[in-house]
Known about the structure:
It is a single chain. By secondary structure, this protein is α+β, with helices and mostly antiparallel strands. Helix content is 18%, strand content 32%. An 8-stranded parallel sheet has the order 7-6-5-4-3-2-1-8. The chain has a 7-stranded mixed sheet with strand order 9-10-11-16-13-14-17, covered by helices on one side. Strands 30-40-32-38-35 form a 5-stranded antiparallel sheet, with no helix packed on it. Helix 7 packs parallel to helix 8 (222-232) and helix 10 runs parallel beside helix 12 (327-333).
Amino acid sequence: MTPPLARRLRTVAAGCGSLALALAGLVAAAPAGSAAAPADSVAQYPNYAPTPPMGWNDWSYYQCNIDEDTILGNARALVDTGLAAKGYDTVTTDDCWMTHSRDSAGNLVSDPVKFPHGMDWVGSQLHAMGLKFGIYEDAGTATCGGYPGSLNHWQQDADLFAKWGVDYVKLDGCNVPTKAGETSEQSYHDTYAAWSQAMLNTGRPMVFSVSAPAYFQDGPDWNKVIGWSAQVGNLWREGADVALGQESAAAKWSSLKYNYGYNVGLADLQSPGRWNDPDFLLAGDSGLTRDEIQSQMSLWSVMAAPLISSTDLTHLSADALDVLGNRDVIAVDQDPKGLQGRIVQQGDGYDVLSKPLANGDRAVALFNKSDSAQTISTTAAAAGFGPGSSFLLKDLVTKHVTRTTGTIAADIPPHATVLYRVSAGGDHTAAPATVVTWHDAGTADHPGVYSVGVTDLGPTGLADTTVTLTAPEGWTVTPASVRLNRIAPGQTATAKVTLTAPKAKPGTTVNTITATARYVTGAAGTDSVSGPLTITTTVPYPALADAFNNVGTTLESNTAPGNLDGGGDSYSADALAALGATPGATVTANGATFTWPSAAPGTPDNVATGGQAIELTGQGSALAFLGTETGFTSGPVVVTYTDGTTSTGTLGFPNWCCSTTTDYGAQTALTMDHRNTQAGPANFGVSYRVFTNTVPLTAGKTVQSVTLPNQPAIHVFALAVTP
């Protein structure tokens, strides 16, 4: 489980040193000051957000690298792209906008270098564009980035924001001290309730985004904190931050799935005008596919989540603009009924969600969480409809409208979501809904023989059905086209095809074969449906070094190539050398002996694990790993033996700094007192570590290969079989 503090605190400003200070602030003695009223006497905050807020925030993409040109440039992009006219109307400046101390009167002061005209001027420019002005503060003694927090300055700060013309306040929850005689939950409530009342006292309507629940994620008080967040504010961040713009594609997708996962189960705690917030939209970020950004947009909309972009809108791709600007999907999110959709069906690697809409329709999302294409099927009854035999399905991305007698299905690529608006009854001239299905025919070879089918889900039959198959370069499909002719309503016609593939290179490759069926549907004329088959091939790398894909160590004289944590930070080769860890050297720690990577500093020297398979040989009791983490996670290791059997274990390491050093059963191997950053060696006095950990092996069997976890936050420098 990713701690809710982890993502923001480990990436902000000075890094892990800031993390240690921030965590220490959570148990600091409370300063003198007034407390908020008890929970049962706090006024219900006005409904300033009758539909989920929409807009843009700088944090995920820029973090502290902001100035007024950045904020206003992205604001102009909202207007110029037409996104503002579609509802993305609030521009929020997140952390790091202020100086490190208040002025002599105790007021917050904007950074004169980043914001030379002041935040009130930024707000006036936003208002002149027809946009709303959002701003960030923190409920504790300091923001997550170490700037002045708002504790005991509640009314002063609220009055200042009102004076500046602020329309939206995001109040984070770093460094909230626990007062004597109170629980942490009570102290959080006190300061958030005080802020709520202070904003009411200003008389200015300001949307209030509460971050308190994120600091209690999955703990015993989580639901309670969400409950009073709905009393004191309009929306609440209830879990871990979404991935940052500089993180890897795999880390971003993992983050989107994780945030979806914690938010989707909270529908009972949401009500119209009070919104669960699983964090920012990443449409436009590098690395994510069109299917992945569409999944986030569709799922966030079905969950009635705020639609707040956090990427560089000034260089938005056509795909990202299409996804963000899809009026039909936005309408699902902004539906006046104001209810969060729920999971109505789950299966192996997929979820089906249904959301009731104001006009009696339902939004139905078929979410393929898995890494392979699959056909997902549900029914109108499961989605919440009463009896009926005719339902219109509008695909809100393709805009294609079809009619079904009750089955709702699609063959969906990996990581993709099909979002339908489903209506009872409807146009009887619409083409029948259809779906493509694929099945492995059970041959010994993979790829080999597969059965491809077309199913008619509508009330009328199909005629002249032809299926055409396409495959990647180097592949062959035999036959490349097949005729299925007539397909009766409710029936499936199939054909067998043989797939052959070129020799795969080391690593994991995903290949897509697409079947497209074209047919005649009577009154609706001709129509078509497509469905993918994904075939994933994993060929082991000859050695771990062949899979190195990340620069974890740099010279202090040249830190620029470093990127262990996705933010440009790395281990110091100079500090490692002082401990004997030089290229090619033997490192013995905790009963295991490793060879430190022979790669030169500044070149890839570790595997950011993404499910790679590595050839390895030997017999022993355990497989030992030398590595670290830039996250807080673990994942499965699969060991394949020469007799074809496998065994599994779980691998994780503590974060490379500022966390418990025995997480996941790991042990410290090397400790340095600083790290390298893009600005050079830094964070002296903070421990940066490399760890060992093990997974068990089956006694008496010979190892053939090892498959690493699909967790890019886990980094492996070396591995070895131990006696």
